[in-house]
Amino acid sequence: MWRCRRGGGCPQGRHCRDITNLSSLGFLGLYHGFQATDAAVEKQTCCRITLPRKRRAYQGTPPADQVLLCMTNCPTLIVMVGLPARGKTYISKKLTRYLNWIGVPTKEFNVGQYRRDLVKKYKSFEFFLPDNEEGLKIRKRCALAALNDVRQYLSEENGHVAVFDATNTTRERRETIYKFGEENGYKTFFVESVCVDPEVIAANIVQVKLGSPDYVDCSNDEATEDFMKRIECYKNSYETLDETLDKDLSYIKIMDVGRSYLVNRVMDHIQSRIVYYLMNIHVTPRSIYLCRHGESELNLKGRIGGDPGLSVRGKEFAKSLAQFINEQNIKDLKVWTSQMKRTIQTAEALGVPYEQWKVLNEIDAGVCEEMTYEEIQENYPLEFALRDQDKYRYRYPKGESYEDLVQRLEPVIMELERQENVLVICHQAVMRCLLAYFLDKPAEQLPYLKCPLHTVLKLTPVAYGCKVESIFLNVEAVNTHRDKPENVDISRPPEDALVTVPAHQ
């Protein structure tokens, strides 16, 4: 049951931003201190609980009462630790991408980039020598500039998580950063990447550092030699996180990119999710294949949702997909589908074992299931306009939003990170969500990513991102992509609402 705090006659109904879900009686009872019954709820004034837009950045030690107030939901500062070529930036970028995808505003602050912006031309490893006073001053200046931007992001711009990507190899430097977090009311969580396997280190150097802006004018051999000397500059002063000396810190220590882990003092749900994610990622070369089911009978008619079978062309695509996968000669390929008929029929043509995931089912359109866009505009013009205004957060009546779908698909992302070669046969909205994760697309763009029928996307994770290849399998299909119309006003004429609807039977 939904109630607007302004009274029962709110014209926006359940779409009002001041609503409170009164079905959450346990929460309301706990918060307001009364027995959670319908009668009790009716007698209470339900208030909208909000957080301040700006958080105060403290200079010096914060008052004790303020520290207590931010114990649960205060911002998180993630601090990377480790020698160069240990995968810190790789981890930073993946973690930032994941947290943003699940709806936690996160930003990465790479101190190396601050140094490159300040010192336009890199000369050699000598810049990093411990007795190079000028180099030390510049690096300290860059670190302070990055921390100042961290404060700006977390305290003034409503950021939730900042990732401070630098070596941070000494206990003294980490203590300084920890105090910075305390003074500003942040929780600090350290992520250390330790590599002792020479093959892992060599692979990191080849894949990442040889493509660094520092070495654009160097040969591979020159770059490798200089970078190895740069690593030596840090080794003598490197102090790893210690179970005894750092027992009061919150951290995860990752050995050889996932061979083993050490986790200490995880303090809240954000840190728990970070740890869980980091324990699932790996760097083994692999490819992920994403495609939609073959064209369905309802696709031909322009109807959304439902559980139809494949059209004639859809069955032809299934055969072409089987031929394509066979020609790829993919080692240990796993095939995943939803539990809907059209993805299962597509997978059956492959002639290989496949797994059905209910969480891969198409977005639930609620009361609009199996309707055309024209019928939705005719019967629910307000809903149609509201969805165009904010397609990511809009929830169909008795259905789902893209935001809901992202939360539903998080276990799939975790498993995809754990696996090697996988083919996922899914649906348009589901494929958009998965693609947005791998390509680091923001929520506003996610619902409009183009995922045409009868096209396979091959995703190959690379050093700091993902390479995408689009393969059309030469079987024609209807277009199901609808762009956002220019006019999204709730009083728009029908022709403006339907201008971007693709053609159908």
Automatic annotation (TrEMBL):
Where, by residue number, does substrate bind? R292, H293, G294, E295, S296, E297, L298, N299, R342
Q: Offer a single GO CC term for the protein.
A: cytosol
* Entry keywords, A to Z: ATP-binding, Hydrolase, Kinase, Multifunctional enzyme, Nucleotide-binding, Phosphoprotein, Transferase
Indicate the segments forming the 6-phosphofructo-2-kinase domain, all copies. 71-285
* PROSITE patterns recorded: PG_MUTASE
**SUPFAM superfamilies noted in UniProt:** P-loop containing nucleoside triphosphate hydrolases, Phosphoglycerate mutase-like
Q: Which GO terms describe its biological process?
A: fructose 2,6-bisphosphate metabolic process; fructose metabolic process
Gene Ontology MF terms in the entry = 6-phosphofructo-2-kinase activity; ATP binding; fructose-2,6-bisphosphate 2-phosphatase activity
Q: Does the keyword Ribonucleoprotein apply?
A: no
**Residues annotated as the enzyme's active site:** H293, E362
- Tell me its family: In the C-terminal section; belongs to the phosphoglycerate mutase family.
From the Swiss-Prot or TrEMBL record, give the protein name: 6-phosphofructo-2-kinase/fructose-2,6-biphosphatase 4
Which species expresses this protein natively?
Answer: Falco tinnunculus (Common kestrel)
